[in-house]
Design a protein that fits this description.
Blueprint (H helix, E strand, L loop, with lengths): L3 H20 L4 H13 L6 E10 L5 E13 L4 E9 L5 E12 L4 E8 L2 E9 L3 E8 L2 E9 L3 E9 L6 E12 L27 E5 L7 E6 L10 E7 L4 E7 L4 E7 L2 E5 L2 E5 L4 E4 L5 E5 L5 E7 L4 H7 L1 E3 L9 H10 L4 E3 L3
């Protein structure tokens, strides 16, 4: 009965809220698209961060910690989830907080819902050119947090601000990006015990697509992924790269990749390795490792790419069309927007 009552309450809340949303002429899909676009603007937050931090305790002493943050998208990328942990030198956790960043499409504003040390609250989050700020009212003072983020560094400071007085800094952390994470969206519960459907595909079978930009080749095939076979983990692609074509330098932040060369010759740069290869070669690319490939031969370079985690197929579908559909080339700004939306898993070098 205790479980049934909350369910009835949830149904009632949805029924009450639905007319209000209907009056505004919005549906769930429209709202989620806008929320995902807002979260894409802060995709650079995603990842694992670690570094030194300090805070001034109530008794005035300075307390040093090692701070970690793990950040990732959730609910199909419509919200951002953050977990922060502070460790003493002996490894004990002395601080633990959870934050959820969301976007209100009606107010056109970001919100941070925070849980920390037994307290919780909602706070406006304001994006800046270099990161964001958020604040907590504290009587005559305001607790102001300012975050400055680059691709590899995270600086966050906390100041107590009062009118007519200089700000007093009580907190600072300097973090570095140390990796990527599938948290919190990984390990989803499948609807049944058999998550996938067995497939036996010939060379030309699969989801055949045409790129809408210049690349390794215009045609490629998605063989296996969540939509083809229903794999929750693996993604497999196949393509024939024409002579002189190349795969531009990029990194897959969350997934290892294996390239198997069926035929042809080429050159590869993977991490610090530079090598020439031929038919039958296997190339292993650990996650977050720079990779670029060029067909140096006179014939097509036929390669199969296998990814240990999903993500890249989303970018591929956004930047291509199904074979047989009209091919309208993407403008540079459209291509840049697609790449930015997918930076949580794949990053291309800026030209």
């Amino acid at each position: 009965m205790r479980l049934f009552r909350p369910f009835l309450l949830l149904c009632a809340l949805v029924m009450v809220a639905a007319p209000a949303y209907a009056q505004l002429g919005s549906d769930a899909a429209t709202l989620i698209v806008a929320q995902k676009a807002a979260m894409a603007k802060i995709a650079r937050f995603d990842g694992i961060w670690r570094g030194p931090g300090w805070t001034i305790l109530a008794n005035g002493t300075k307390h040093n910690i090692t701070q970690t943050e793990r950040i990732g998208p959730f609910l199909d990328g419509s919200v951002k989830v953050i977990e922060g942990r502070g460790y003493k030198a002996d490894g004990r956790v002395v601080f633990n907080a959870l934050g959820i960043i969301s976007y209100d499409t009606f107010k056109k504003a970001y919100n941070l819902h925070s849980y920390a040390q037994g307290f919780s609250g909602d706070f406006p989050l304001n994006l800046t050119e270099t990161g964001y700020t958020w604040s907590i009212p504290a009587g005559p003072a305001t607790i102001l947090y300012t975050v400055t983020i680059t691709d590899s560094t995270w600086l966050e400071v906390g100041d107590r601000v009062m009118a007519g007085r200089p700000p007093v800094r009580f907190f600072e952390m300097n973090l570095k990006r140390v990796g990527s994470t599938m948290w919190p969206s990984a390990d989803q519960v499948a609807p049944n015990d058999q998550a996938g459907t067995p497939l036996v595909l010939s060379e030309n079978d699969g989801e055949r697509r045409i790129r809408r930009f210049g690349g390794a080749s215009s045609e490629f095939t998605i063989k296996v992924d969540g939509k083809n076979g229903g794999s929750p983990d693996f993604v497999m692609l196949y393509e024939n790269m024409p002579p002189g074509a190349s795969i531009p330098p990029h990194r897959h932040l969350l997934s290892d990749e294996i390239l198997f060369v069926k035929s042809g010759t080429g050159s590869v740069e993977v991490g610090s390795l530079h090598a020439n290869f031929g038919a039958g070669a296997t190339i292993y690319i650990p996650k977050n490792t720079r990779i670029t490939v060029r067909n140096t031969g006179k014939d097509a370079l036929s390669v199969a790419a296998i990814f240990a985690r999903p993500g890249f197929e989303t970018y591929l579908r956004e930047s291509s069309v199904l074979e047989g559909q009209p091919v309208i080339m993407l403008t540079p700004s459209e291509m840049a927007a697609i790449r930015q939306r997918n930076e949580m898993h794949t990053v291309y070098e800026k030209r």
